[in-house]
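Slides due. Your pick:
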Amino acid sequence: MDRLSRRRPDRGESPGPPPGPLPRLLAGLAAGVALALVVALLMSGPDDDGAGPRTPEACRELSVTGWRADEEMTAEFARYGDDNARLDDWTGGDGSRSVRLPDGRTLWLSADTFLDRVHPATPAGGPSRDPSPVWVRNAGVVMAPDGRLERTLLGPGPGAFFPGLTGRDGREVWRWPVQGVVEPREPGARERVVRVLLWQREAGGPPWAFGVPRATEVATLSLPGLRLESVEPVDVPPEADPARRVLYGTSAVREGGWTYVFGADEGTVRGTSSRAHVARVPVGALADRSAWRYWDGEGWRADPAAARALSVGAAPWADPDRGASNTYTVTRRGGTWLLLTTDAGGPDGRGLTTVTSYWACSPQGPWHGPSDALTPPLPEGGRAAGAVAYNPQAHPAFSAGGADLLLSYDVNVTGSTSAVHRDVALYRPRFVRLEVSASR
């Protein structure tokens, strides 16, 4: 990362005699120029190499050096899900991204979401759902500034908040919300909106149990009302092979005048890691597909077909099948970019059971790692039920700063829908707090 440096005289160095009139004039002019340059750096947008405004924060190797369960946040989602005051609100889901709103509220984005009644725990097991509960492809859940979940955002029906489509052959096409950001309605505007990146997916056969990836879109929500205003296409993947289509939005990080939007293909359906990618968009222009620029390995290009995969742990000696899944998360800690993912292609046949971390000095990498972070704990009875943990997501707005970072992960029993109805805890997000520190 670029860094500003300042030279100071040694403590024993004499400042010398007072300057005469001409030296004083030259010194004054030099100081004025220096001040103008500093002001220009502070007020300017991103520079040509995409690094954004310069920062004095150094890039350091980071890794997860400890963690603890955040029982309070996990319990809040359980409290809200178990509350039967309304039967048309969230009782469980996955996806689990968060967007801090200007008024202190938080919008939580959920993909496949169950509604309906939750039955109290019995001696035979925890709280449960009806065998065939109402469910929708996506929803939003609003959290008050005090951390209490208070309402669910749905479409008419109730239906999905981001409504689906019907394919040309009649197959279902749905939208899964991924990362969202607050930004100006357009570059330089005072009015702000929420932009939510969406993954458009279509029903398909094996190995596409969770839908065939189709395209990336951006939804615009009004503030403060969170009304869905529009959905705009962003990227038409050029790959005919669905496993190599890149969908963007698993993470979005603002630096300077840019929003860096991370994405991936879906190589994990074939037992390999996914190929991570990154694009950047001027702040305020996420819904304008002409403003997107894709990293091609050397620079930023307007053509999405020119995008090249990031070097996430892709050193010559590394296992080529090891790296990120398609739902990794990226955040910045000081001058360092940190990527967390379930370990695709991990050693010893452990599968997607361990969260690993990578670090870089710029969003385009190179990304160094992996370093094991944690094996996310499952709910009681989860292992016996065949539950899995996936989709680790960072939530910087809920982090205390310093070494503290809040991380969520989702839980599901992919082989048995009935299992997540018998025990609602098997399809809800869980939370941990990570200790992120310099490795050396």
